[in-house]
Amino acid sequence: MKSIVLFASGSGSNVENIVQFFQNKTNVTIACVLTNKRDAKVLDRCNRLNINALYFNRNAFAKTDAVLKVLESFNPDLIVLAGFLWKIPENLIQAFPKKIINIHPALLPKYGGKGMYGDYVHAAIKENKETETGITIHYVNENYDEGAIIQQEKVEILSNDTVPEIAEKVHNLEYEHFPRVIEKLLLEQ
């Protein structure tokens, strides 16, 4: 049995998509969802989906080993950042080498780095009149959005696409590809 721990900061739509993808698979379990926001909508989704969820604050995450100890208790095969906005501290990266992955809503290395998430990315892409965007699934290292790329998927942007339309195209790529990449990585272990 393979085990996944998910991190999320917001609504949790990717978390729900991943949970639904694996719900009928007997070889993978979602051990827990961790969030850094006490009022994150992902907590409501976890309650509805009957998934364990824990909240932690910045001190527990970055200045102590509290979150590390929680992760070690679950012994996950993969840690998946699904809309998680904080930089992962070095103690977690060292404890779980090549086991932490992230999804970014652009084709890295473009439009990555601190502050480049969600609609900020899509607005920058629109402003720069890009003709394509996509998703990048990558390993997490000590820098924002600089870990080794696992997979990228592209989508065309039309000149009249709005930021919400670009976001929808990117979300559709996320929902289609992220769970499959997670499954592939788990099977390769």
Task: List the main descriptive attributes of the protein structure presented here.
globular; 7-stranded mixed beta sheet; alpha/beta; 189 residues; 7 strands
Describe this structure in words.
The chain has 189 residues and is an alpha/beta fold. Helix content is 40%, strand content 23%. The chain has a seven-stranded mixed sheet, with helices on one face. The termini are close together. The model has no long low-confidence stretch (mean pLDDT 96).
Major sheet description:
7 strands, mixed
What's the arrangement of strands in the largest beta sheet? 3-2-1-4-5-6-7
Strand residues, percent:
15-25%
Structural class: alpha/beta
The number of strands is 7
